[in-house]
Each structure stands twice: as C-alpha cells, then as structure tokens.
Amino acid sequence: MTVTEIAKQAGVSIGTVDRVLHNRGRVSSATKEKIQELIDQFGYQPNPIARHLKKSTPYRIGVLLPELGTGYGYWEQLYDGIISAAREDFSAFSFSIEPFFFKRPLTYSLTSRFNSMVAADCDAYIIAPVMRKETQRLLDGVLVAKPYCFVDSPLPNTEPVFTIAQDPYKAGFIAGRLTELTAGKKTGTYAVLQVFDESFNQDERARGFGDWFYNNALGSKVIHVLAKDASPAAISQTVQLLLEAHADLVGVCTVSVEVQFVADTLMQAGRKDDIAVVGFDLVARNRAALENGSIDCLISQQPKEQGRIAVRQLFRSLVYEETLDSSIEIPVEIFFKENLI
Questions:
Q1: CA 315 from centroid of its chain's CA atoms
Q2: What is the DSSP code string of 130-196?
Q3: What ranges in 59-106 are assigned the alpha helix state H?
Q4: Mean pLDDT, 10 residues at a time, over the chain (341 residues)?
Q5: CB 3.0 to 4.6 Å from 230: which of 16, 81, 195, 276, for a disulfide?
Q6: How many CB atoms lie within 10 A of CB 115?
C-alpha cells in the first residue's frame, strides 16, 4: 500500500499521512489513530529510495586523508575510489564529497583539518586514522554527531560504524613469510623497516613480521628499525646503516609504500642480489621496481576498492538505514613480477 492509497482509505490528504509517518505537524488524535490502523493493517513500509530521491540536498560526505601529493599515489588511488563511487555508482543519489587533507605527520595539521571537517556538519565522514594518538585524542575530545568510518587502518578504542582495512598483523605475518621465502630461507638477519612511529597499521605489521620469525625461523634474527622520516634520504641512510651494522643481512621488509627507496639503496650498494626486498602497495614506482627486479614482492591493500566500498557502505547506512558489519577486511593481495597484469 502506498501513501496515496492510505490517504484515500483514510479520507485525508497525502500531507496528513506524511505528517503521521514522520511524527511532525498537527494531526488530530482520531485521524492519527485511523491512519496508524491502516499502516498496521497493510504493513506499510517507507521506500528509502523514493525518500532519498525527494531529498532536495545531496548527502555530504566529509573525507579526512593525508595530502594527495604524499604516499606516492596511494592516497590518490583511495580518493579516486571514493570519487568514482559517488559520481558513477551512485550518481542518481547526489552524494557530495567534501575533502579535508592534512600534512602527515604534523599534529597541528590533522587537528585543524579534523575540526574543519566536524564544523562542516556533513552527513557522514570517511577517515584514514594514520596518526594513532592524535586521531584518538580528537575523537575522544569532540562529539562527532554523525557516523564516521575508517579506511586504510583499524584503530582500537574508537567507535566507527565500520572499518575497511587489511588485518595489519596478519599482513605483517605474511610479509615475514614472504621475505624469508624470497631470501631462499637463508639464516641471518632480517630487518623490518618502519617510517611512521605513530601508525597503528605499521606497528601491527612490524609485530606480525617479527612473530613469523619467532614462530618459524628461530635460527634467524629480526631487528625493527625506524627511519627518521619518510623521505628518500632518511630511508636510504637507514638502509646504509643496516648494511654497515649487519653483514649477515638477508632480507628487508618495509611496512609501508616507501619500499622503493630501500630497493634503490640496495641496488646502488650492489647488494640487491643477496638481500630480499618486500613491501606494501602497488603504486606506480613500486610496480616499476617489481618489474625490474629490485623489489621481490609487494602486498597490495587495494586502496581504490577501499574507497569504493566506503561509499557503498555509507549508502546502505544513510539511504537504507541498515546496520552494517563493523569490520570489512581487505584481502592480502600478493604480487610477484610474474603475476603482474
């Protein structure tokens, strides 16, 4: 039964039925009771699609990500997935994307953009919680009245409506196995290199990497090193110090997109043939290094698909008002030179 049919049966206007359905405006008790009886009798359910199409303004989605010029193409891919879903998959439903980009790892930049995003009072938010402590502090300190979700990384002790990410510990554990495998299972020193110390994602990958060797390769040693920053120079310096301090270095895993600079340094030092290199993210530069053999293996997080899924899930939440699964795990995609397309 439609709203029009209910109005006809009750002998009232469509506007009166609408006011009863949404509990607004003045309707006499007798009329309200009559309409409610018809609703109950015929099991009327509002059509969320029709309701949305009547909405005069678009759903506004705030997006909080690191600046697109960083991450060597990773954040561009994720944002492109968000934009593509909003413009192509749900073009009929008027999703408006409002970006708020911050400079990682500057806390004042994240704080400023977070506050601007909340002040914009969007209908929902997509957040990359790559700066663990500051993001937790901000979420604890500000009442975020609209639903928010996470992409790229989970974040403990927070309450997003859902998180879209790989299991970072599992990904690190697999990275450990892949590094040992590509090193020919040689016994020696394996290094896990991290570039941001406030990243839950990277912390968990490093922990998983170490646990692989602790559980499966007891004859080898694992060291966890932190680069001064994410610049090519800082990463190159870190790798050079590793080479000087560990003559038995047989494998390096970088738990982030910057693995290309590890590979470049080892190639320049003439050490790539005896040291395995594994890392994350199939961005253009990493892909080229995988093709030329300076990187042995990459784990992809499918950033564009993460962005698409985030918008799809928010569509289900905002339009259909569905209760969603709290975690959507991105598969661990493994790429060698031989299976690149």
A1: 17
A2: -SHHHHHHHHHHS---S-EEEESS--TT---SEEEE--HHHHHHHHHHHHHHHTTT--SEEEEEES-
A3: 74-84
A4: 77 79 76 85 64 65 96 97 88 84 97 95 95 94 85 96 97 98 97 95 98 93 95 96 97 98 97 97 97 97 97 88 89 95 80
A5: 195
A6: 13
